[in-house]
Design a protein that fits this description.
This protein has about 240 residues and is an alpha+beta fold. It folds into two domains: about 60 residues, Arc Repressor Mutant, subunit A (Orthogonal Bundle), CATH 1.10.10; about 160 residues, Chorismate lyase-like (Chorismate lyase). It is built from seven helices and ten strands. The strands form three sheets. The chain has a six-stranded antiparallel sheet. It has a two-stranded antiparallel ribbon with strand order 1-2. Strands 3-10 form a two-stranded parallel sheet. The radius of gyration is 22 Å and the shape is elongated.
Amino acid sequence: MLSNTNNGSSRFVLNQIKSLIEEGYYKEKEKLPTEYELAQTFGVTKKEVQEAITILERDNFIVRRPGVGNFVNAKPIFSSGIEQLGSVTEMIKQSGKKPGVQYISADLTEPTDEDRKRFAPLEIDKFAQIERIRTADGDPVVYCIDRVDQRLLPIELIHSQESIFAAIKSYAKKEIDYAVAYIEPIGYHERISPLLHCEPDQALLLLRQMHYTKDNEPVLYSANFFRADVFSFYVLRKRM
């Protein structure tokens, strides 16, 4: 319930709004009352509300939309340790949702200079590049771009399995053992964000990975664009 008791601090406002979000009083993607209305409700100054809102935005409890208002941020459905290597299909299944795929394109391409560096010392003449949208219970959640030696995964076999990992293992008899990963938050992507049904202020998480077999053979390069309101990643760190 809302409370009119206050201790005259932005910390009080912060805790009140956070509790109301966690209790479901303010629901995901719901617009919060204006800063003036919140100040009146909690009996504090507008400045103290603004300070609380700034912290809530920093901690991903809310999203600010200039000229529109403040909205409750959606909680990620999928949470995974980035040190855990699994396919997108496996991640979606582990959340209890049904994975699906929408194929955008599958083409043979020439290797770029970056490809030659990534896949060295292998010499590859043609890459199969596959672009797909991965869905969870029908909702688009990840845009995947995969590049693999076309000898390991011919174009005509691309649609045979949802998981690229499984397709490479089935056809090429090569099993991915580990990957070197880089993750970065990016803003609105003009081509990909609309395909994932993102709002203009919704961020994406770009996960770039180079995958290897246990014999250190480079097999697959992937660039996956995850909806940041649906996925979260964490790292387990241990003291040395």
